[in-house]
Amino acid sequence: MQFMLLFSRQGKLRLQKWYVPLSDKEKKKITRELVQTVLARKPKMCSFLEWRDLKVVYKRYASLYFCCAIENQDNELITLEIIHRYVELLDKYFGSVCELDIIFNFEKAYFILDEFLLGGEAQETSKKNVLKAIEQADLLQENIDFQMGLFTGVTVPNMVSESSGLFQN
Fold first, then answer.
1. How many CA atoms lie within 13 A of 143 on its CB side?
2. Which among 9, 18, 44, 71 could disulfide-bond with 3, CB atoms 3.0 to 4.6 Å apart, if both were Cys?
3. At CB < 8 A and 24+ separation, what contacts does 91-97 make?
4. 13-18 and 3-8 as β-strands: parallel, antiparallel, unpaired?
5. Helix (H) or strand (E) holding 107
6. Residue 142 and residue 137: Cα distance in Å, rounded?
7. Which sign, positive or negative, has the C-alpha torsion 80, 83, 87, 92?
């Protein structure tokens, strides 16, 4: 997979993950072109299209389009399954995911994607294992937040400067 884009029916980009190195200018151009192309297609049309030297696979769930670009030799149906699995993971985590969940919890949406895909390839096919890793990360974050709450007002540079004298004010 070259990249994955999530965008609304209005064409607003909600999430983007690139697995190939491109300049920001090129990413914006690709995004603009692809969003316009997909949104212009009729609902009953095929979810696969040839675009430039890539194949584009997309699927609309509620108000969001999930769109992936793959190499010509890659399998479109597997990519469609990857999109569906990602939506299932989001659904399980957020409990009936919606566009607002992606907007307000984009870092969690990226984290879920990163637990599922690595370098544009599925690294874990088990929903249970992906959700377990996400749950463990959430527990770790809660633990860190709790412990930091115990030390309210004490910052790391102050603790280091008091004990070792490395940071001078």
1. 6
2. 18
3. 92/127, 92/131, 93/131, 93/134
4. antiparallel
5. helix 106-116
6. 9
7. positive
Supply the pLDDT for residue 120: 87
Vertex 41: Cα angle to 35 and 42 (nearest 5): 140
On whether the CB atoms of residues 88 and 126 are closer than 8 A, the answer is: no
The answer to whether the beta carbons of residues 56 and 67 sit under 8 Å apart is: yes
CA 1 – CA 66 distance, rounded (Å): 13
3-class state of residue 57 by DSSP: strand
pLDDT by residue, tens only, the chain of 169 residues: 999 999 999 999 999 999 999 999 999 999 999 999 999 999 899 999 999 999 999 999 999 999 999 999 999 999 999 999 999 999 999 998 989 999 999 999 999 999 899 888 888 888 888 889 888 988 888 888 888 877 665 554 544 444 444 434 3
Distance separating alpha carbons of residues 70 and 82, to the nearest angstrom: 12
The single-letter DSSP state of residue 16 is: E
Coil, strand, or helix at residue 2? coil
What is the spatial distance between Cα 155 and Cα 157, in angstroms, rounded to a whole number? 6
pTM score: 0.81
